Each structure stands twice: as structure tokens, then as C-alpha cells.
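Researcher: I'm comparing several assemblies side by side, and this is the next one on my list. It has 736 residues spread over two chains. Same procedure as the others: predict the full complex and return the structure.
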Amino acid sequence: MSDRVPVKLKLRGSLWLFSSLNNLNSIFCVFLHLLIVLGDIILTIQKNNMIIPTYNDVLIAHKRIKPYIHQTPVLTSRFLNDLTGAELFFKCENLQRAGAFKARGASNAVFSLTEKEAFSGVATHSSGNHALSLSYAAGQRGIPVTVVMPYTSPQAKKDAVRGYGGTIIECEPSASSRESVFADVLANSGADFVHPYNDPRVIAGQATCSKELLSQVTGLDAIIAPIGGGGMISGTCLTTSNINPKIKVYAAAPLNADDTARSFRAGYIISDDAPETIADGLKMPLRDLTWHFVSNHVENVFTATEDEITNAMKLIWSRMKILIEPSSAVPLATILKNPDVFRGMRLGVIITGGNVDLNKLPWLKNSE
Amino acid sequence: MSDRVPVKLKLRGSLWLFSSLNNLNSIFCVFLHLLIVLGDIILTIQKNNMIIPTYNDVLIAHKRIKPYIHQTPVLTSRFLNDLTGAELFFKCENLQRAGAFKARGASNAVFSLTEKEAFSGVATHSSGNHALSLSYAAGQRGIPVTVVMPYTSPQAKKDAVRGYGGTIIECEPSASSRESVFADVLANSGADFVHPYNDPRVIAGQATCSKELLSQVTGLDAIIAPIGGGGMISGTCLTTSNINPKIKVYAAAPLNADDTARSFRAGYIISDDAPETIADGLKMPLRDLTWHFVSNHVENVFTATEDEITNAMKLIWSRMKILIEPSSAVPLATILKNPDVFRGMRLGVIITGGNVDLNKLPWLKNSE
């Protein structure tokens, strides 16, 4: 069961249409114009016909993906509790299959395809954890997966995608090249496009993470997670708003990629072009589906500088003995920066992933 | 309940004693000599009066220390299973309190003291995980703890001991200085000496790790753990020999500190003087109590080179997303080196600790 948002129709050019009805020769012109208007309506319906996943979709997703994902552990640290004055419960998706929570959404998308749909495989454009996770999930189902990524992507990431059985189509490191190459891939393969976050199947899958967390830890006051495109945060909002709306949801973004924070304050989507941050999983902008959840359910969006992210990352590595990628450190960085907001809370903290280049650690300037 | 090994008496100089009974003046001499013999007997009894912990001690220890330790998780990795052809179950003591399994033995020693004994506190000489763990355990009980360590020890380790409330007495970086300074500490404080491994309370505590593992994973064929002084291996032997003697125990040592492996083959304790290895937790030699377990229960001792240890460490970091110290990587290094021994086994692998200097990683030559 899925809710559908009201369809908004834009009748572009209708005034011109009526003013041009002054001779019979215009009948063909009118017909043509009506066709254009009709096409416009259909396009607008498609664009706005946003399918918002419900909590029932989350329940179905969880049942569907359980064989392919870990129930990741929740870890605590007395040291970090003392440091922050809050009780922190770290949900460790760095220990998830393929090293990130994205295995949840990708698995849900892949395993919700019909046999016929699955035959043509899946495709995405990503150079990050979504590419890995979609390759992992497709490998589990035994269907083809194609990933479009810039030829400049690190060899380790290409190797990892291929290791899971994915096919890589390389493009130039530009948005235009990526889009045209990806359009060709879709046209030629008939593959199902699994967007990294603006996809109801993906959001329902990511929501299973906070669903698990709430079954592992009782009495949480709030959950904080990193935000980039907003897939994890949307899933978290979906879960909390259905299980216990009193649980607040906070989002944490790099200051260098703070378009989400500015969107949140402005009340509409602001999207920056290719922001630069070590939190490389958080560079993507919000899209309509994730904006729906962020604008309706998120309590606040906090930001942290690159140095604050690096320090929080090193703190978690050294104190909790787990590898987390820079993106996963942004929540702790913002908790440390805003102690008055979080003090005394029982706070879930989503550690989103652990895919990091061990030869390039942000606190070691001359590594390698 | 504790077993006691048979006492061996050495009647030093007895032949000389009887040959000297040729005049009455010798009566005093005889009396004096009898005193010497008696003293020798008492010393020999004390030396050999080795208290070997039993499984009942382990059960008592586990109940005693439960409030002060984590039941650490067991993690698996499909990648490492495929690589080794074995089913590996990693018992993650790097996620233990104070970052290592040593919190178990130290807590058991500290909390088994009577109120009167505890009043004078505990002491040890160590610059490693035992110092941290004993400080942690003493802090939990609220009793004094003194650690003798070389003034050359890393500042981070000193800070960590002090962070847990320990007092550091510095000595020269030599065994003779350490021993004389430590003797003074014991004499002045009356503290209870908690040896890092040659102590039945410590071994019973370490045994709770494999006891937990066997309750978390069924049907194990074997367990492998790093070996230095032998505390963890002894505890593992104690557990398996009582719960299921069919479970084999393998030990893994650095080739650069392979005195245990040579002892195992020779049939008596060989102890090297200050071996050099990145696996800095495994430099200590076996002692009588740990030799008892190693010589009676261990199936084999395998070794790995420094490079093999580094590679295994990096493999676990990158694939399992957990921080482990070099010592903890030695078992995987030896599994990879001896595939025919382990292929097809359900194998418990003890990850002993995760205390590592993040500014000096062995695969980064120019770090910092």
C-alpha cells in the first residue's frame, strides 16, 4: 500500500492557445497545441506522481531483505557518553554487507522486481556505496547490474564493484557525460534504474535500519544520521513517525556540503554543484521524495567543519575500535559541537558506512 | 576448588651432610644444615605450589566479572571465509572494555580480593594492555592501582592508564630496573601483584572469553588465538578441555617472537630476551602456569612473518571494518599460510585487542 501525493497540473501556454483561435486555419494549430498540452500534463503527472513509501512497505521490505542483510550490532562507549553527556547508541551499518546501510535499499529494490523485470537487470550511476550495494544485491539475485562511473574513480572502488559481479561503464567525470552514457545504458539494456535515494523502494529499505535500532534499544529520545541526498534520513523519519512520533530526527551535514541545511531553513530544495568535502557520501542534493520527509519530519539539520569531522572520525576509531568512513563521523561531530541540544538524551546515532581508503586517512597528511 | 600439582623436593647437599658427622663439634653444623635444607624445601614447595585454575574457577569468574565486561560480539566475513576455505568466527575482544580481553583476567583478580586485601590495592609491571585493564578494573572497584612502566613508554599509553585512575611509577627501560622499582612498590604499598598471565585468577578470567564464544557459536572444530605469555591460550585450553575436548586449540605467534613455538617443539620453556615484532602484545615468554596448559592441550603453534601479520591486519581492517592491533592479526596470518590445516573447519578466531596507534600504521611507512 502506498500513498500518492496530489497531482499538480501545469497548463503551460493555455492563454496563448485561446487568444490564437481567430481563424479556421488555426484548427490544425489548435490540435497540435492540445497535443503539446496533453504531453505536458502527462509529463507533469509522471514527475509529480511521487510514490511515498508507507510503514507497511518497510515491514514488507524487512521481510524481503532479511536473508541478504546483517542485523547490525548497536555499540556504546562510556568514554563518548561522558564526553557528550548523552547516552549514545551507535547503530553500526559499517558492519553491514558491502560495508554500508545502502545494502538495505538496494536489496529491497532488486528483490521487489518481478521475474520479467529482473531479467533485464538493474543499473545505476554512482561511484560510492550505492554502486557497491546494488552490485552486491544483484549478485545475490543473480541478475545483471551495470554501473556508470567516471573513469577517474579509485581503482579500489572499481575492483569492489567487479568483485560483486557488476559491469562498469566508464564515463567522463562530468554530469553531462554521466547522464548521456547512463541514458544509453538504460535504452540498450532495458535495465531497471535504481536511484541511490530518490526511490520509494530504496527509502523503504533504508528505513529497516532504524526499525531494527528501535527494537534493539528502548526509550530513545532521538536519532541522528548523516544527510546527503537524504535516503537514510527519510527512512528514519518514516520509521519514527510510524512507531513513535515523539522520537526526534536530527540530520548532520558537512558544512562544505550544507545545501540540505540551507534547504531546511529556506523551505525549498537548494542544491549545490559538486561540493568538496571529505565526507564523500554526502555530496548529493535532496530530491523531491527525500525533501518530503526532511521538510515534514526532521527536527533540525546541524553542520560540522572538515576538521571537526576528522576529529570525530578519529575519536570513534580510537575509542570504539571500528572503522567508519568520514560521512559516518558527521553526527558525532555535530553532537560535540551542540552539547546543549543533546545532553541527557538517549540518542541513536547511525554509523552509515565503513568504506574508507586505508592508505589515505584524513589525519595523516603524508600517508602512502 | 583448585588442583595442586605434586610437590618436588630437592634435598640439596644431603650427601655432604652425612659425610660430615665425624665429631661432636659438627652437631651445630648439622643443625645449621638441617635448617638450610628445611628452608630449601619450603622455597621449593612455594615455587612449585602452582595453583592451576579449574573450570569451576571459570564459572565463578564469569559470574564475578559480568558487570564489568562486555559480552563481545562474534563477527563473520564471507570474503575471508571464501579466501581461507574455512568458516571463521571472530570473537571481538577489541570491542572489550579497555580495548582488550585482558579486562577479563584483571577484573577477576581485582574482584576476587577480600576487602582487607583490596584496601592496599593492586600493582603490576606492564606497558601494554594488562596495565590498562588492571587500571580499569581497579577503578571499577575503587581501589589504588600502581603500574611500573619504562619512562620511554608512549605518552598515549601513560595517558590511558592515568585516564582509568592508575598511578604510574616510571623505571629505566631495562628488566633489572623494572624489577627493583617494582619490588619497592610492592614493599611500600603492600599491594597485590597481579601478573599479566602467570596467575590462576587471570587465566580463569581470560577463559570466560572462549566460554562465551562456545555459547555464541555451536559446532566449532577448533579455536585459534595469538600466543605470547600464554594467558589467553591457557584460558582457551581450560574451557575447551572441560566443555568439549574434541575442540582443538591452535596458537599463533610472530616468527620474530617464536620462543613459544620452539618451546612447544622442544618440550620445555625457551624464553627469548626482548624479541622485536610489530605484534607488541606477544613479546613475553611462557611461564610455568601457562606452560602447563600449552604443553598439555595445544594442538600446534604456527608462526607468521611481520609482512604476513601486516597484510592480515589490513585485510581485517578493510574487510571487517574493525580496528585490531597487530597481535590480533597473527591467527589470520597463520590460517592464510596453512590453508590445508584449516580448510573446511568451523574455526573460532580470538581477536585479542584493538589498542593501536592511529598515527603509526604498519602499512604506512611514512605516517605522521
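Model: For your comparison table: The interface with chain B takes residues 73, 75, 94-95, 99, 314, 317-318, 320-324, 354, 358-359, 361, 363-364, 366-368 of chain A (CB under 8 Å).
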